[in-house]
Please model this.
Amino acid sequence: MNSADPAREAAFLVAVETHSVADLRGVLAAGLSATAPLQGKSPLQWLLEMYMRSDQFAACVQLLLDHGAAIDDPGLAAVLLDDAAALRAALTADQGLLRRRFDVVAAFTPLLGASLLHIAAEYGHRRVTAVLLAMGADVEAGAALDGQGGDGQTALFHTVSSLLDHGAAVMNLLLAAGARIDVRLPMLTWGRGQAWETTLYDVTPISYCQSGLLPQMHRREGDIYRNLGALLAAGKRAAPSLANVPNRYLLPRR
Model:
C-alpha cells in the first residue's frame, strides 16, 4: 500500500502534477509503489488524470512502467508513450486497434469511448498522431455520447484550447488531414466530475476553442486567438483583425 507515508504521497502528487521526471524517480526510489493504490487510484491513473500537459508526460508514463505499472493494450501503451515505432508495429499486427474504444479519466475533454486518435490528441502527442493518420485513423470519429445526447466530440476538440497550448501541433496535423471545423455537438462537458466542470451547448471546434477564455479554463488569450485563426483559415474563413488582444479590460490595473 502507498498510504503509510503522507509526505511521500504528497511528493508523488506534485511530481505527476508537474511532470517532473526527476522528482517522480526520487519518490519511486524512496519506496513509493508504482502498482499499489494511492487514495484509491493507481499511480498511473493519477498521472493520466492530472492537469498538466507537456512533453515530459510520456517519460513519466515510461518511468511508472519501468517500476511495474502495466498498460494491457499495446496500442494504448504506444499512444501514451508517444512511441511511433511501437504504435506502427501494433497497428500492423492488429488494424482493429484503429476502431477500438477506450475509457480514460481525464481532467478536461472527456475520453470515454475514445479512439487512440482522441487520446493522442488530448495529450498532445504528435508522433503517434502522425502514425495514426498515416495508417487510416478516422479523423471524424466521435467519442461516446454521455447518455443525455452530449459529448461525441472528434479528436480536434481535444486540441483547440489545450493547457499551455500543448495540443496546437496536433491540431495542425488534424486540420491538414481534413478535420472539419463545422462539427456541431448539442453539448459537451469539460472537466466532468471536477470542481471546474463546465457544460457548453451547441459546440463546434471554434466555440470550444473560444471557451478557453473562460476563467476556469486558465488558458492564455494569445494562444486561443492564434488557434482560432488556424481553425478559421482551415475553414477558408477570414479572421478579423485583433486590436484588443490581450484584452485591455482584463490587464492588471496599476
In short: The first strand starts at residue 102 and ends at 104. The beta strands are 102-104, 111-114, 185-190, 198-203.
